[in-house]
Amino acid sequence: MIHEFKKVWKQYTIGMLWLLGLLWPMLGIHPDGTLTFQKTVTVWSYLLAGSLVCLMIYVMKASGSLRFISTPLSRTTEGLKSATAAFPSWVWIMIVLGFALIYPQFAGRYGTDVAINVLLYICLGLGLNVVVGLAGMLDLGYIAFYGVGAYTYALFNVTYGLAFWVCLPLSAFFACIAGCIVGYPTLRMRGDYLAIVTLGFGEIIRIILNNWMSLTNGPNGILGISPIGIYIPIFENGLTFEHFWVKKLEFFYYFALGLAIFAVIAVRRLNFSRVGRAWESIREDETAAELMGVNTFIYKLLAYAMGAIFAGVAGAFFAARMKFVSPESFTFLESAMVLCMVVLGGMGSIPGIILGVIALIALPEVFRELQSYRMLVFGATMIIMMLFRPSGLIPAKRMGTRSEEKES
Amino acid sequence: MEYFIQQLINGITLGGMYALIALGYTMVYGVIQLINFAHGEFFAAGGYVGAIALAYFAGVGYMDSHPVICLTASFLIAMAYCAYLAVGVEKIAYKPLRKNSRLAALLSALGMSIFLSNGMMLTQGVYDKVYPGELFQGRFDFGMISISYLQIMIVSLTAILLVSLNLLVFKTKIGMAMRATAQDKTMSALVAIGSNRIISLTFAIGAGLAAAAGIMYGLYYGSVKYDMGFIPGIKAFSAAVLGGIGNITGAMIGGLIIGMVEIFGAGYISGEYKDVFAFIILIGVLYFKPNGIMGENIDDTRV
């Protein structure tokens, strides 16, 4: 253990001193011409203590001192794994589904609200997964398609009074068109140019939503969007259908659940189809894929449009739930958040993304008093995941060892 | 005509700032082929440190007696701080990922950008931080055209920095080592150029220039904000791409063009859409002339 510690202490000390030097000018220099050290040292010592604990765990793990914990732990997980393998996977899916179905009965209003958020973000995350996880293109303007979907429903509903179920395909359609418009000129570019161009397009769409006063009402947003309406059969005197607005959160939860289940099934089917294999071949080696007869441009465009469709549908649900849309909901940070969920859970892995969404939506709700640290933690999560576990919490099963080109 | 010249002067001022930021992008991309998303945050951090230093000098009282020394000191402090920040950021978030896929490094850079901007928010507050505004109040008036002292200061300082960077890169041994590393890491390692040190140096120089641009931005617009690095960052990246990424002269020219286009677009077409013009240029350049106007200068296998 001492040996392992000797290897890292120098870097660690330099790193912590660097941090101290970084923090002091931000916290210790005051405009009234005084210099203080107390606050800096306090903040720094918290960070020091926290990182020291992490370092100790790391060192002990590397030296094997934690074997008395890790051995039984791995044995338990092995046991759990063999126990879960005893049941076929559909049993587990049924259990999860059953839990999801009865969840609003005991969760209360707030819990249901969070759960709806989780479900919408699952749809978004899976859509982004098609682009980033399957086709291997970094898309930083993804939330713009969510915005297009939401605004499509909002505008058609408020201006023409169209119902939700008519607007849902329209939302998907317009998001798809937007995806193609963005994708067509950009997809011939190199991987990292694509990232910044999609970022630019995302900002353009947000700026247009913000400034086109006559259509979108600008930063004030659109109010008075009607909720989802459904017809319920009533058997009292013959068969009649009664119109019913889904206003209660619990009912809306079931629609969001349906959306999430649809997204999971669709992405899974896509992943294991010919199209999904083509995407994965593009991700692993684009030149080789093209050589094998995959029309890379069409498939990349398809991935882009498909991701946009998921976002558009989720956007329509979002608008129906909030009954209000404004450009504020579709900023770059939202894109980064969805991306962080995908990265945390594991690119290309459906259970991973569901876990990632739950972790990044539900956990901040639990630690509400630390709300302002949320984005900080998101950023740090992305860096740490990339450094220590680039394939995510639950790695995808079919992921090559190389992605894109290696440095020569 | 007066309006046109006035806009031209404003455009040069803004374009100079973009050029300074774009240089960091282009140098880093030239050396390690990575879009350093956190570069915009170096710019914002420079603005903040400049504001803090100027406020401190004003608080101590040096500001009234020696304004020029205080301003120079603030510039130096901010540039040193950002260089220091950038070297550490490179060591933590980019160096371990140099052998990994590009997507991993890009995501790490993006995470770093979010982390830094929120770190600044937590230490400095959500609201705008006001710059001491009494500096450079005067202006020259030529009929309808007016040039403020501040604009003259910004343009001349930008010019000095750009010229000295050019001298550094093209006339010194260090610059030669940087160019060699950008072209071929293996070969340059064989002739005893430590690529790690050169990469750190590149980050430091880029961040220092961005910090100078940050202070100028703060002085010019009067305040800084924790998320101000984002949009200028993308615009400066557009400038780097426009000039041909990896090409230092190209980044300077690209920055000036982007600044001009933004100012003229805002002046003659629409002020609300001023942020859109830079993106349209970026997309257009990448679509029609991906090598930029001055040509690329990187060792990079095309996908």
What's the structural blueprint in terms of helices and strands?
The complex is a heterodimer of chains A (408) and B (303).
Chain A: H1 2-28, H2 38-63, H3 67-86, H4 89-134, H5 143-160, H6 164-186, H7 191-211, H8 213-216, E1 222-223, E2 228-234, E3 240-246, H9 249-271, H10 274-284, H11 286-291, H12 296-322, E4 324-325, H13 332-345, H14 350-366, H15 374-388
Antiparallel strand pairs in A: 1-4, 2-3
Helix pairs in contact in A: 1-2, 4-9, 4-12, 4-13, 4-14, 5-6, 5-7, 5-12, 6-12, 9-12, 10-12, 13-14, 13-15
Chain B: H1 2-32, H2 39-60, H3 62-65, H4 67-94, H5 102-124, E1 129-130, E2 139-142, E3 145-148, H6 149-171, H7 173-183, H8 185-190, H9 195-221, E4 223-224, H10 230-243, H11 248-269, H12 274-288
Helix pairs in contact in B: 1-6, 1-9, 1-10, 1-11, 2-4, 2-5, 2-9, 2-10, 4-9, 6-7, 6-9, 7-9, 10-11, 10-12, 11-12
Q: Helix segment count of chain B?
A: 12
Structural class of chain A: mainly alpha
Report how far the terminal alpha carbons of chain A are from each other: 36 Å
Using only CA atoms, what is the Rg of chain A? Answer: 24 Å
Radius of gyration of chain B: 19 Å
**Largest sheet geometry of chain B:** 2 strands, antiparallel
Helicity of chain B, as a percent range: over 70%
Shape of chain A: globular
The name of the CATH topology of the largest domain in chain A is ABC transporter involved in vitamin B12 uptake, BtuC
What can be said about the biggest beta sheet of chain A?
2 strands, antiparallel
Could you name the key traits of this structure?
heterodimer, A: 408 residues, mainly alpha, ABC transporter involved in vitamin B12 uptake, BtuC, 2 domains, two-stranded antiparallel sheet, two-stranded antiparallel ribbon, 15 helices, 4 strands, 73% helix, B: 303 residues, 12 helices, 75% helix
